[in-house]
Amino acid sequence: MDNRTVARYTMVVIGLVLATLLLLLLAYETRQVLTWIVIAVFFAVALHPAVSWLDRKIGWMRRWLATLVVYLVAVAVIGGLIAVFVVPLVREGTQLADQLPKIIADVRAGRGPVGSLAERFHVLDYAESHAGQIRGYLSGLGASTLTVLRGAATGVAGAVTIFVLSYLMVLEAPKVVDGFLGLFSERRAERIRRVGHACARTITGYITGNLLISLICGLLTYAVLAILGVPFAGLIALFVGLADLIPLVGATLGAVVGVLAAFTDSVTAGVVVLVFFVIYQQLENHLLQPLIFSRTVRLNPLTVLLAILIGVELTGILGALLAIPVAGIIQIIARDIWDSRHGRPEPALPMSDSSGSETIRDTP
User: Fold this and answer.
1) Contact 10, 1 (CB under 8 A)
2) 23-37, 125-139, 235-249, 293-307 — which is least confidently predicted?
3) Where in the sequence is the domain holding 334, given as residue range(s)?
4) Looking at the whole model, is its pTM more than 0.70?
5) Which range among 23-27, 88-92, 115-119, 275-279 has the greatest average pLDDT?
6) Residues 257 and 161 in one domain
7) Which residue ranges traverse the bilayer (predicted)?
């Protein structure tokens, strides 16, 4: 190899390294937009089957109309759920604001469950000895009001952007997929289509399964707290249901808040809620999750744990939410590469015929 060839290879390597660094820098600088795009992709994948089914069942309905109908239904369902929660939450929030002076007075006097707990754990003594630090912290919170408002505005803009992006992704999905697959041979395109179908099924199964599990958790928590007469049961159950969306630690975090809230009402309620969460988490871990995820995200517990830890380290809570479906997608792709290299037969791909029913077509 002469010096000219060595110099050319060196320049190529240096160029690739610089291009990689620039790409990583670009990804870091646009990380918020990339996050919105990833979330939009997940929503698009989750709603795409409904759009395709409606487009296939109603022959006169164009795809843009089917997409619009599905998204309007999704917005209506989300709005209905919010309305169902908002009314009791507003009522309980108003009650909390009305009872707050009495609660503070009870805490100072050591009366009631909250006051007795504060007296037992010397909360008032701690507050008095650290009054300066607490005032400084509260003043810091007041100074960060502009930051909070800016974050709220960014959140609203992100929600609108995610909605529009996912809508356009579903609307243009057939053209994009057909154009992309047209770059490959028929056999390779069929293989990519089969793997993509499996990955989409994994994402859809995880999203619907996780939402269903969280809904069950929130409803059961509300029922137990309401039966025991724990105040603000709706607020606590909503927090527990939302926390349960976070894999690995979400259920424990929600249980801690629920148990503490129950103990502030009475010791009996606290013990009952503690027993409920212990039993429910065992049922969720060993019955609900295997039953719901067994046919979609087929990952062993060790892989799930490693995926969640890596996802949390990389992108925080969002990484924890996306870790399991991403790990499932990686597993599907790795298994397909392994099977193809070892000459194993490829599974059949479910396709839809013109009548709308699913048929099985063997890959070539």
Assistant:
1) no
2) 125-139
3) 202-341
4) no
5) 275-279
6) no
7) 7-28, 34-54, 66-90, 148-170, 211-230, 236-260, 267-283, 303-334
Residue 358 pairs in a beta bridge with 352
Inter-residue contact 209 to 299 (CB < 8 Å): no
Nearest CA to 35 among 245, 275, 319? 319
Tens of pLDDT, residues 13-69? 888 889 889 988 888 888 788 888 888 888 888 788 888 888 888 777 788 888 888
> Does residue 117 sit in the same domain as residue 235?
no
**Domain assignment of residue 211, yes or no:** yes
Does 330 lie in the same domain as 221?
Answer: yes
Question: Which carries the bigger pLDDT value, residue 153 or residue 164?
Answer: 164
Give the residue ranges of DSSP H helices in the chain. 3-29, 31-57, 63-109, 112-120, 123-129, 131-143, 145-181, 186-228, 233-243, 250-265, 267-283, 289-293, 301-315, 317-341
Residue 154 CB partners (closer than 8 Å, separation 6+): 32
Long-range contacts of 190-196 (CB under 8 A, 24+ apart): 190/349, 190/363, 190/364, 191/336, 191/340, 191/346, 191/363, 193/349, 194/336, 194/346, 194/347, 194/349, 194/363, 195/332, 195/333, 195/336
| DSSP 3-state of 65 | helix
Q: Are 333 and 349 in contact (CB under 8 A)?
A: no
Residue 163 and residue 206 in one domain: no
Q: Which residues of 156-192 are buried (b: 16+ CB within 10 A; e: fewer)?
A: eebeebbeebbbebbbebeeeeeeebeeeeeeebbbb
- Banded model confidence at residue 364, pLDDT cuts 50, 70, 90: very low
* Same-domain check for residues 47 and 169: yes
Q: Do 43 and 177 fall into the same domain?
A: yes
Map 215-266 to HEC letters. HHHHHHHHHHHHHHCCCCHHHHHHHHHHHCCCCCCHHHHHHHHHHHHHHHHC
Q: How many other CB atoms are there within 10 angstroms of residue 44's CB atom? A: 23
- The predicted-structure confidence for 302-314, as pLDDT tens digits, reads as follows 777 777 778 777 7
Give me the pLDDT at residue 114, please: 58
How far is Cα of residue 351 from the mean position of the Cα atoms in its chain? 29
